Amino acid sequence: MTCYEELKARGLIAQVTNEEEISKMINEGKAVFYIGFDPTADSLHVGHFMALCLMKRLQMAGNRPIALIGGGTGMIGDPSGRTDMRSMMTVETIQHNCDCFKKQMERFIEFGEGKAMMLNNAEWLMKLNYIDVLRDVGASSTTAATCSSAATTSGPTCWAAPSSSAASWARTPTP
After folding, report:
1. CA angle at residue 104 from 100 to 110, to 5 degrees?
2. Complete DSSP assignment for 142-159
3. DSSP category for residue 128
4. Which stretches does DSSP call E strand in 59-169?
5. Is 60 exposed, middle or buried (0-12, 13-18, 19+ CB in 10 A)?
6. What is the pTM of this model?
7. In this structure, are residues 16 and 25 in contact, taking their beta carbons and an 8 Å threshold?
8. Is 113 strand, coil or helix?
9. Where does residue 56 rank: exposed (0-12), middle (13-18), buried (19+ CB within 10 A)?
């Protein structure tokens, strides 16, 4: 059984755009992929475990994982799936959480030259000053609602992560 077939049999692959190409890339160890992690706490939780197992399995097959830590998007306070507003965290708290995630992930994933990468979207998002606007708007609205609102109709697109441990991002065109 190939790596791709194993992942599919275990229910870890639900939908792909070009199954033949993706299967070949994964089986030949040529895939570069990412999984996003939302740093709302200083410790990974059991919900992150499946994503880390998937990353490890793909890495063992020669593929290159990217752990994308949402240090920038974590500043927004998106209440997705919640009835209450997420409490705003300070930059220092978010950075502490990101640092803790890195230490914990290093127990599962091999990071380094030619191996896995860890990126923090704060490195590029914080330079945009867009986070200040999103902190105000995002505190009372989900990302999906913000992307579909009239406030974003003049922009070309809005990018939204389906969940904190999603392996891909969805491109949502604005109306």
Report:
1. 125
2. -HHHHHHSGGGTTSSEEE
3. G
4. 64-69, 117-120, 157-160
5. exposed
6. 0.69
7. no
8. coil
9. middle
Question: Which contacts of 109-113 are long-range, i.e. CB under 8 A and separated by 24 or more positions?
Answer: 109/52, 109/55, 109/56, 109/59, 109/65, 109/67, 110/59, 111/67
Q: Which two tokens stand for residue 146?
A: 């913000």
Stated as kind and residue range, the H or E segment containing 172 is strand 170-173
The token duo for 12 is 């870890």
Tens digit of each residue's pLDDT, the chain (175 residues): 999 999 999 988 888 999 999 999 999 999 999 999 989 889 998 889 989 999 999 999 999 999 999 888 887 765 556 666 667 788 899 999 999 999 999 999 999 999 999 999 988 887 877 666 666 666 666 656 656 654 444 444 434 333 443 343 333 343 4
